[in-house]
Amino acid sequence: MNLRPKHYVGLLDRYRDRLPVTPDMRIISLVEGNTPLIPLEKLSREAGHEVQIFAKFEGLNPTGSFKDRGMTMAVTQAVHEGTRAIICASTGNTSAAAAAYAARAGVRAFVLIPEGKIALGKLAQAMIQGAVVVQIEGNFDDGMRIVKEMADAAPIAIVNSINPYRLQGQKTAAFEIVDELGRAPDYHCIPVGNAGNISAYWVGFSEYAGIKPRTAACGFCAEVCRFPQPAVTDSRPIMLGYQAAGSAPFVRGGPVEHPETVATAIRIGNPQSWDLAWAAVRESGGWVDECTDEEILQVQKLLAEREGVFCEPASAIAVGGLLRDIARGKIKPGSLITCTLTGHGLKDPDTAIKQSHSGVLRIPAQTDAVKRAILERM
Ligand code: AN7
Q1: Which of 20, 59, 131, 298 gives 99 a disulfide partner, CB atoms 3.0 to 4.6 angstroms apart?
Q2: Among 117, 342, 348, which is best to mutate for testing ligand 1, by the most ligand atoms less than 8 A from CB?
């Protein structure tokens, strides 16, 4: 007998056969996942080489970023283990998701954020959702170090992506892409900060192809996920990771001590999933490259103006890097390409307004003046 509801109730339910979900678990969910795969028709045409580009718009998750996928799994597991409190370091989105799922579960959330370098929307989310917000006089990497030390000292669950349950939840985005396209894309483009998400996608794409990736994340998955499940597709994409030039440890070949970028979400110099991410890139035959802040903002605006898709700066980098690699001839003509837009543009209204002020006209409140202004611009 099928006891599952007919309507969509979240990714832990939809993909429970491939996740560490047991029947006795209380599922903590905001009905996350099931995000749209939006064809970027104009950008594809303009890029040429007969490419087809799709955006997996993760900004449409309940808290506005892909973090919800990992958080539903991590908080469900933490509550199952009897945890009363969760903690994370965050550049913003993880803290927003942690606060929301903690509220849902009825546990306390402690979030460590870098002072002054967090987008306004994310701060608002963490605050109103009742998390204890701790602004540290340091950056994300400082916060991460402290969180790891704290968890040894107190009975509290870390919900950063070093928690393997986070990656398990996040791998479902790769499942959705393949389910939607009916095949794996040829390339998948993704921003890289702490490097958990690129690792999770690789696990997801690999599992769907019936292949066990040579990564520790899948070692974990083999224990709890009853892998292998039946293969759904026979191929995996080439993984392309993009970093902000001022915060690009994977491009530099080692940690960056003072990371800086307008894309504050990925202002991370010492990524925790270093080995997993490299395994994903190497095993897939892909690469990691960087974009300047200028390129990031330009492409954020391009996506908004030309496609009507408003993502945050850190997300735009996936498309920015891709378009450049297409122009350089690094992408096979005729390819089917997916890009993860990791977070919603509304997260960071300050940055959006700052680079769009020329779009606002100031005129007297008179019909004539308005008419003239409009007719001049038709
Ligand atoms: C919009 O919230 O690390 O490479 O603390 O918010 O898996 O870290 C955010 C990361 C990309 C990078 N895009 O993903 C945090 C945090 C957005 C993000 C990333 C983040 P990872």
Answers
A1: 131
A2: 342
Substitution candidate for ligand 1 out of 56, 66, 88, 93 with most atoms within 8 A of CB = 93
How high is the mean pLDDT in each 10-residue block of the chain (378 residues)? 75 95 96 98 98 98 98 97 97 98 98 95 97 97 95 90 95 98 98 97 94 63 63 96 98 98 98 95 97 98 97 98 98 98 98 86 95 94
In Å, how far from its chain's centre is CA 197? 6
Tell me the CA–centroid distance for residue 367 and ligand 1, in Å: 46
Tokens, residue 28: 């903590």
* CA–CA distances in Å: residue 115 to residues 123, 142, 204: 11, 11, 34
Examine residue 228 and say whether the peptide bond preceding it is cis (omega within 30 degrees of 0).
yes
Mutation pick for ligand 1 pocket among 60, 162, 194 (CB with most ligand atoms within 8 Å)? 194
Strand (E) positions, 137-201?
157-158, 187-191
Task: Give exposure, 332-359, as e/b (b: 16+ Cβ within 10 Å).
Answer: eeebebbbbbbbbbebbeebbeeeeeee
Q: Is beta strand 37-39 parallel, antiparallel or unpaired with respect to 52-57?
A: antiparallel
Amino acid making up residue 5: P
**DSSP character at residue 40:** -
Calpha distance 52→47 (Å, rounded): 9
Q: State whether the Cα torsion 347-71-140-174 is positive or negative.
A: negative
Q: Is 98 helix (H, G, I), strand (E, B) or coil?
A: helix
Burial degree of 162 (CB within 10 A; 0-12, 13-18, 19+): middle
How far, in Å, is the centroid of ligand 1 from the Cα of 193?
5
Return the amino acid letter for 160.
Answer: N
3-state secondary structure of 115: coil
Q: Where are the beta strands (DSSP E) in 100-160?
A: 108-114, 132-136, 157-158
